[in-house]
Amino acid sequence: MKFQRIFALFKMDIKKTIREPAVLFIVILFPLILTAAFGLAFGSLGSSESSYSIAIVNLESPSGPWSQALIGNVTANQVFKPIDYPDNNSAHFDLVQGKIDAILIIPQNFSKSCDSYWNNPLNASKWINITVELYVDSGSLIATQAIPPIIQQILITTLFGESSGGAIPLNLGAPSLIAANKFSQFSFMVPGLFAFAAIFLTMTVSSTVVEEKTNGLLRRIYVTPTTPSEFMLSHGASNMVIAGIQTALIFAISTLLGFKPAGAVGWGNYAMVFGCVLIFALGNVGFGLIVASITKNSGSATGLSFIIIIPQMFLGTYVPVPQSVAQFVPSYYVTDAVTSLFLRGAPISSPTILFDLLVLSVVSFLIFLGGVLVFKKFGKT
Amino acid sequence: MIKMLDQPEKEMKQLESPRGLKLRNNSGIIIKNLVKKFEDIMAVDNLSLEIQQGELFALLGPNGAGKTTIIKILCGLLQPTSGFVSIGGYDALKEADKIRPLIGFCPQETAAFNFLTGKENLELFGNLYGMPKEILKANVEILLEKLFLTEHADRRVQKYSGGLTRRISLAMALVHDPEIAFLDEPTVAMDPQSRRAVWEFIRELKQQNKTIILTTHYMEEAEELSDRVGIIDNGKLIELGAPKELNEKHDTKSLEDLFIKITGKKIREAV
């Protein structure tokens, strides 16, 4: 394996991206335009200036001090416009009609449950366990993603007060969740956009390689001492650089449009975001090589690429999809990791991040390896 | 505007070869009982042939005769169905890695990276052959000059005419100064001036004792340049020898007449 050959092909690939308008559009301009469009369309939605109508159904009769405190805290939170409802059914009717965004049901013995905790804070067996029901409009991205953590935070604040002292055993790390009430709908889309841009590398790689195959350039390269591994490594390296540039540009544009990571996000988080996207890019290069190996022209390569792109795009990026479904596409792990790093303020050593990174690395490596093997076998002609 | 072909200063400059690998025993090309079948089509039918080092050998035949298939097998792009091929003293099937640095391949299609300039295409292929920077730079300059491409060197290939693209494609095959060059229809679709320039350049390569295998539809090209010609039809070698000898043997005035006489068809009727 000779670095000179890999670097020569790498430079050629980068020049193609810069000089070919179609490639430049797909790889750089398209993600930027999409980010800008999403930022302009959704940047103002769900921001701190917006509020969400939440129905409060208080089943305590008579209303106890703790339920009054909870209602007071919900009212005090600027994110919500609380509306009292006499019963669950009428609230559900309005939720289905889209008149409200969520329903909070305060159960009958809410105050007793809180009292039971404070009477025996260290003895869980004496607590009266209850469930506060929350119904959220599933059609609203911001409602599904933002309201539950905010309500959870309000519950904690209600029980413990604004400043929970060291003696209180249930400190749930509330400050990171409080930041959620400042996120716009766009903020929840940004992590998916990082993955979204890299997904399209499948198409650019496949159509580029198929084009090289059909116009005889690949044959020329194969007559030189260049090995298939050198050829594919150069493609992997150039596309990882392109993915890095995409990530930086998307971050810059989204920041200009109001995206701001939660709390104090360290350099490690930024590095991890780049790392995840680059690893994911390698997997997509692998997909591109597989597609290029089994197709005969750039039209069919583009078509087949979309069969890989669409599920990744809709199941693993900015569209809210249940985890049980999303976990089957690699893009989900990038989006989840970036969401944790940027929106949840998770440290890079947190189990969630490490798990996402592990799955992403293994899957991307296997796809790239698969791409190399399939390309070696079928990609020459 | 294309310059005069016989400028004296060009004679002084020669391509440099950076390789460690050399031809084994100064061997050329040996083909024994070569067969290539595509399903039920016999593309190459039991071909046996020896080409000496330093020889310029032309493969002639109409479209579909099997010329390009033979070239692809010799370059390692196709696996033969059966038979033996030795290039530069190395077994083409078992020692392909040793053969690649020795050969240059100019395909029939004008295969160059359109988004690169002519010079960048040459540099890319020089780097793929692992050439040292200084030698590569010198060879690029020489080739650009010899093929009258200097003034177009920094333009992207997508803006080249067909003739310019073919010349840059030829230069890409020769930038590493190969011992053996496979030139598959190198002058097809070229204007007469460009063709003459390429002929002149091929003659220079021959003077440097390079082995050249040329496929062509142009009988005058084969007659002008080659030491020997092999006439292929339906995958079979039907005649082999020096143009003059063959014309004498068949009592014909040109290879064109010879081809009609022995195959019953014109070589370019399918073009």
Describe this structure in words.
The complex is a heterodimer of chains A (381) and B (271). Chain A has 381 residues and is mainly alpha-helical. Chain A has 2 domains: 235 residues, no CATH class; 130 residues, D-Maltodextrin-Binding Protein, domain 2 (3-Layer(aba) Sandwich), CATH 3.40.190. Chain A is built from 16 helices and 4 strands. The longest helix of chain A has 29 residues. The two termini of chain A are 23 Å apart. Chain B is α/β, with parallel strands linked by helices and 271 residues long. Chain B has a single domain, classed as Rossmann fold, CATH 3.40.50. Chain B is built from 9 helices and 10 strands. In chain B, the strands form 2 sheets. In chain B, strands 6-7-8-3-9-10 form a 6-stranded mixed sheet, with helices on both faces. In chain B, helix 3 crosses helix 4. Chain B is globular and about 50 Å long. Chain B starts with 28 loop residues before the first strand and ends in an 8-residue tail after the last helix. At the A-B interface, helix 1 and helix 10 of A face strand 6 and helix 3 of B.
